[in-house]
Design brief:
By secondary structure, the chain is of the alpha+beta class. Helices cover 45% and strands 25% of the residues. A hairpin with a 5-residue loop joins β1 and β2.
Length: 83
């Protein structure tokens, strides 16, 4: 499986990425070995994710989420918690 995820950073910003192992990737971000963006914004918390069967679909969705405004990302996160 491939996952697209949103992290909430310590400074209240959001980071969007993709991975094949959510647990490992979250650990990597929190150890300061993940993306440059999250290194100075630890700890990070996983607040949203979606599953995909192929990498291409995951990468397309990652791009789409990154293009969303902060308000739209918050709505996406909020709606997922109400499912």
């Amino acid at each position: 499986m491939h996952y697209v995820y949103i992290l909430k950073c310590h400074d209240d910003t959001y980071y969007t990425g993709w991975t094949t192992d959510l647990e490992k990737r979250l650990h990597t971000h929190n150890e300061g070995e993940g993306a440059k963006y999250t290194r100075s914004r630890r700890p990070v918390e996983l607040v949203y994710f979606e599953e995909f069967h192929d990498k291409s679909s995951a990468l397309k969705r990652e791009c789409a989420i990154k293009a969303l405004s902060r308000t739209q990302k918050e709505l996406l996160i909020h709606q997922s918690k109400n499912l």
